[in-house]
Write a structure and sequence with these properties.
82 residues; mainly beta; 3-stranded antiparallel sheet
Amino acid sequence: MSHVRRWRCKSCREIFPGTEVLIAKHPFISSGSISGCPRCKAGFDSTAELICDVPGCTEEASCGWPIPGSYRNTCHKHWEGK
């Protein structure tokens, strides 16, 4: 079971799937890239919050465990399916 990671921008608080994250070549590091919010365009390489992958939950992911072919990222409430 594959999960699409969801992120919350700390600037505008928008939640969006990882497939919508803006990615561009880093202007100062030749082999690096930078990420940004698709709504407000704020950069968030270190300021985006990973959101629990349980449908309907909007809490920040704080736990995780490997599953076949992927990795679960959940809030404490949904850790190990609790």
